[in-house]
């Protein structure tokens, strides 16, 4: 019991001393004691604001994620709808093509091949026609060139033969040269006429007459042929025919007027009145 009482005494003494100390500390305070409470209050408020900010951030993040997820869902739904619509359109178009009676792909390929073959055949035919026309023109031009070359060659040959005939003195040689000219050009009226003149020189009057008739039949405007035939008629004692051919030849060529008095084959016509009147008129 004594120990308990002793303890109570010391406790009372301690309380008294502590009270005195607190009284001294309170009297010595220069600032109010409530300031720590204000700081504590501010810290608590800041803590609560921080917690609310974290909650708000978490909510915003969650809402953004939900919005993104919703956008993705909408995009996927839109894509799915678009693909489905495309397939629906394709199916409808295919059905429409079938309903309208379109042929199968094989038939289309065959049709394309047939059309292509027809077009190729048409183009080939056109090119063949063009090539045939070109070939025909080339052949014609080749013929013309060959004919022209032949004509040039014949002209040169005939010219050289005429040069030879002018140098020959023998009538027989001249007739042979004129025959060569006629072999090259059978319708050479001049060669026929000169050959007839050579035939008259050797006494082949009938031959000369036939040749001159042929020459006049081929060219009725060649005056020298009528002149030579008049000579033939004069030698055959046919004055009327001779005078008639002389008149025709003088009408066709005035240059023969000077030869009228000098032509030796007209000696049989000197006493013919028609011939004399013809001389006077000229």
Largest sheet: none
Total strands: the figure is 0
Share of residues in strands: under 5%
Classify the helix fraction into a percent range. Answer: over 70%
**What is the name of the CATH topology of the domain at 171-281?**
Serine Threonine Protein Phosphatase 5, Tetratricopeptide repeat
- Assembly of the depicted chains: single chain
End-to-end gap: 212 Å
CATH architecture of the domain at 171-281: Alpha Horseshoe
**What is the average of the pLDDT values?**
78
Structural class: mainly alpha
- CATH homologous superfamily caption of the domain at 171-281: Tetratricopeptide repeat domain
CATH class of the domain at 171-281: Mainly Alpha
Using only C-alpha atoms, the radius of gyration works out to: 72 Å
SSE succession: HHHHHHHHH
The coarse overall form would be rod-shaped
Q: Could you please describe the fold and organization of this structure?
A:
It contains nine helices and no strands. The chain is mostly helical and 282 residues long. Helix 3 runs antiparallel to helix 4, helix 5 (189-201) runs parallel beside helix 7 and helix 7 runs antiparallel to helix 8. The longest helix has 65 residues, at 35-99. Residues 21-29 have low confidence and may be disordered. The protein has helices at residues 2-27, 35-99, 105-167, 171-184, 189-201, 205-218, 223-235, 239-252, 273-281. Among the domains are: 104-167; 171-281, Serine Threonine Protein Phosphatase 5, Tetratricopeptide repeat (Alpha Horseshoe), CATH 1.25.40.10. 15% of the residues are buried. It comes from Mangrovimonas cancribranchiae. Keywords: Membrane, Transmembrane, Transmembrane helix. The chain crosses the membrane at residues 86-105.
């Amino acid at each position: 019991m004594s120990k308990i009482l002793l303890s109570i005494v010391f406790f009372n003494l301690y309380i008294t001393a502590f009270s005195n100390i607190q009284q001294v500390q309170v009297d010595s305070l220069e600032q109010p004691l409530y300031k720590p409470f204000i700081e504590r209050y501010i810290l608590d408020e800041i803590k609560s604001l921080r917690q609310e900010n974290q909650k708000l951030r978490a909510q915003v993040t969650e809402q953004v994620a939900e919005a993104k997820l919703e956008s993705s869902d909408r995009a996927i739904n839109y894509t799915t709808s678009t693909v489905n619509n495309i397939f629906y359109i394709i199916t409808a178009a295919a059905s429409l093509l079938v309903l309208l009676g379109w042929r199968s792909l094989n038939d289309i390929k065959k049709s394309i091949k047939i059309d292509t073959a027809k077009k190729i055949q048409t183009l080939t035919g056109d090119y063949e026609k063009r090539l045939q026309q070109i070939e025909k023109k080339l052949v014609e031009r080749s013929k013309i060139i060959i004919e022209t070359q032949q004509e040039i060659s014949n002209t040169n040959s005939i010219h050289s033969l005429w040069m030879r005939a002018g140098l020959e003195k023998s009538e027989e040689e001249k007739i042979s040269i004129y025959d060569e000219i006629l072999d090259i050009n059978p319708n050479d009226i001049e060669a026929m006429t000169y050959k007839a003149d050579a035939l008259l020189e050797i006494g082949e009057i009938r031959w000369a007459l036939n040749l001159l008739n042929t020459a006049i039949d081929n060219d009725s405007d060649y005056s020298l042929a009528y002149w030579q035939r008049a000579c033939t008629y004069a030698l055959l004692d046919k004055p009327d025919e001779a005078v008639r051919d002389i008149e025709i030849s003088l009408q066709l060529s005035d240059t023969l007027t000077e030869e009228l008095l000098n032509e030796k084959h007209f000696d049989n016509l000197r006493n013919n009145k028609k011939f004399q009147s013809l001389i006077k008129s000229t």
